[in-house]
Amino acid sequence: MPSVAEVSNSTHNPKLHSKPFFNDSSSRRQKILQQRKSLPIASVEKRLVEEVRKNDILIIVGETGSGKTTQLPQFLFHAGFCRGGKLIGVTQPRRVAAVTVAKRVAEESGVELGQRVGYSIRFDDRTSTSTRIKYMTDGLLLREALLDPYLSRYSVIIVDEAHERTVHTDVLLGLLKKVQNARSKSADGHSNGNNKNADSDMILDRENDTNGINTLKQCQGRKFPPLKLIIMSASLDARGFSEYFGCAKAVHVQGRQFPVEILYTLYPEPDFLDATLITIFQVHLDEAPGDILVFLTGQEEIESVERLVQERLLQLPEASRKLVTVPIFSSLPSEQQMKVFAPAAAGFRKVILATNIAETSVTIPGIKYVIDPGFVKARSYDPVKGMESLIVVPISKAQALQRSGRAGREGPGRCFRLYPENEFDKLEDSTKPEIKRCNLSNVILQLKALGVDDIIGFDFMEKPSRASIIKSLEQLFLLGALTDDCKLSDPVGHQMARLPLDPIYSKALIVAGQFNCLEEMLITVAMLSVESIFFAPREKLEEARNAMKSFASPDGDHLTLINVYRASDEFLEKRKMEISKEKTEKIRRKWCKDNFINSRSLRHAQDIHSQIRGHVEQMGFRISSCGEDMIMFRRCLAASFFLNAALKQPEGTYRALASGQVVQIHPSSVLFRAKPECIVFNELIQTNHKYIRNITRIDYLWLTELAPQYYTMQN
Ligand code: CDP
Ligand code: MG
């Protein structure tokens, strides 16, 4: 692979384009300019732009932090790739990355976010008609393809972080291959309607505009300029991508990496959170200045480490307390995400508590120490049982290397791996693509909506197993999304494809719409879309339990979540008249704290609620409430979550009806003690036990009445 850094000539003076900043922060502006100039990618701007001009598909690999995500789109913008009002789209697997990078690039370009530079993620759109560089999640671009099958607004699409191989990235790669093909044909003067038999034109063959999704008739005969496709990856092995795109050209942007000393533990750690905490304080008290990056598995864990660090700090002498914690995870409210990039106050050390988002997606300056317990939360799917679950698994070698690399961006660093060295040797080389370990019903729904009917024959970079495709097809059929001949059903299938939700949640909204409890279901789906509404600190377990009791519904967790949501609304509604906006926020947070509610999660759920509400209103659903009739609401849950029904067994465990698995109610459920005969649940968590969470009591007979397509078949 040619290395751009090597072949670039040293006389090329990187030209960084910038407008004078319109406010007084010129020293910050100077600093940013300086930072940009010193990025490895800055010296190869011209060469990269040339490569993009020459190649319709280009693969760019480069170490994390070399400037790919923030700089390349700006280079292309200034090289004229947005002429005629076209867009440069940059997809990210993670919401946080799309948001933080867009903010950074807007700042670098001296423009307001949402103007020339913007982002769009599910439930949050910050773009306008003047946007030319658009950061977005890969899932969002897939949704856009439903409305604009040629992605005609884009002149360039950059698929970033492709090494992550999320399920959306993989589907997107397949789709973009088709779109590019179709667009180059249209540019050659082919009429798009004439290629009915060509597989690559499958997405162009849709004619029925049943739900306002398809606009192909309008596209026919129109000409589109060719689409430039750039695949960016932090993993140095570009072979897979190159082969998939017919031996596409790959170039390497050299990064800058200082040595990182790797330290292992002598023995396996029985409690990795405890080991993490000890290591944080060892570094803080014994090591030279420099920030710490800790890799944890999720929001809940991050927040509990955050609390523990703060508690322990209070036990230290005043002079040793100069440590601040900053969390970063995907569902963190957008205004808080940027905090990780701000330097700590003078004399303070920053400890960033992150999910694997900080592996490659976001580059945080100032890190000298990395603490890596070696785990990640990942999706796992059992196609035989049809169950998807989130499990905490060991990371791969590639991930461990990426993580330690974060310590050596700006100078020599140290990485503390909280496991023995021989454990490292046992790790898998690289992570298995997500498409091989997740439920595919969402993917299938989207592909079907895009006109791809033959899912098994679709040109995936790596094919998911036939068994999991078939299982997911079956699930969609049972939910009523597919007809007997495996087409999207009308209207349910089309409605489900339009909603940016898991098909089961979309089904719940559709059913609730028919039975007058859409208001309740919207709250439920929003609350289920966030992690951990309740929090129970170890030292206040009793108080937290009592607080939860005041919201608890004897019918289960879904109604309990509705109670929390409404209680918070009512509390604020009463005080709205009295006080200012800032005060409201303060009071809201205090209310959450007093009630042991996670205020970040609740706020996120409220945002999601208003967004989904917008979607269903647009789709013409009438939003009404079932009032006191909670039986109706529970029947709706049964009618949509019937694939996750479970029956109590004599010894108090449950048997999941669809999979036959023996599961237990999670201790955090309000039904943990009540143990009703028959339940539906939303989530399966596998630790030492198989726990189910978010549970509602239902009547066994409802299953045969409301889901006869499944329960008579199974008897
Ligand atoms: O994509 P790649 O990992 O190659 O690098 P990048 O994300 O473009 O980041 C390049 C540099 O921009 C980083 O080293 C950070 O110093 C800086 N950056 C930042 O300060 N704030 C952000 N939100 C994003 C990047
Ligand atoms: Mg990047």
What does this structure look like?
This protein is of the alpha/beta class and 715 residues long. The chain contains 27 helices and 21 strands. A hairpin with a 5-residue loop joins β17 and β18 (654-656). It is globular. The termini are far apart. Cytidine-5'-diphosphate binds at residues 35, 39, 62, 64-71, 100-101, 104, 341, 363, 365. Cytidine-5'-diphosphate binds next to α4 and α5.
Q: What attributes does this structure have?
A:
alpha/beta; 40% helix; binds cytidine-5'-diphosphate; Pre-mRNA-splicing factor ATP-dependent RNA helicase DEAH10; hydrolase; helicase; ATP-binding; nucleotide-binding; 8-stranded mixed beta sheet; 21 strands; binds magnesium ion; 6-stranded parallel beta sheet; 715 residues
Short structural description:
By secondary structure, the protein is an alpha/beta fold.
Task: Detail the topology: elements first, then pairings.
Elements: H1 4-7, H2 26-38, H3 45-54, E1 57-62, H4 68-78, E2 87-92, H5 95-109, E3 117-121, E4 124-126, E5 133-137, H6 138-147, E6 154-159, H7 167-187, H8 216-219, E7 228-233, H9 239-244, E8 249-253, E9 260-264, H10 272-286, E10 291-295, H11 299-314, E11 323-328, H12 334-337, E12 349-354, H13 357-360, E13 367-372, E14 375-382, E15 387-394, H14 397-405, E16 413-417, H15 421-426, H16 441-449, H17 466-478, H18 492-498, H19 503-514, H20 518-528, H21 541-549, H22 557-575, H23 581-594, H24 599-618, H25 630-640, E17 645-648, E18 654-656, E19 662-665, E20 678-686, E21 690-697, H26 700-706, H27 708-711
Parallel strand pairs: 1-7, 1-8, 2-5, 2-6, 3-5, 6-7, 9-16, 10-12, 10-13, 11-12, 13-16, 19-21
Antiparallel strand pairs: 3-4, 14-15, 17-18, 17-20, 18-19, 20-21
This protein binds cytidine-5'-diphosphate and magnesium ion (MG).
Organism: Citrus sinensis (Sweet orange)
Protein name: Pre-mRNA-splicing factor ATP-dependent RNA helicase DEAH10
Keywords: ATP-binding, Helicase, Hydrolase, Nucleotide-binding
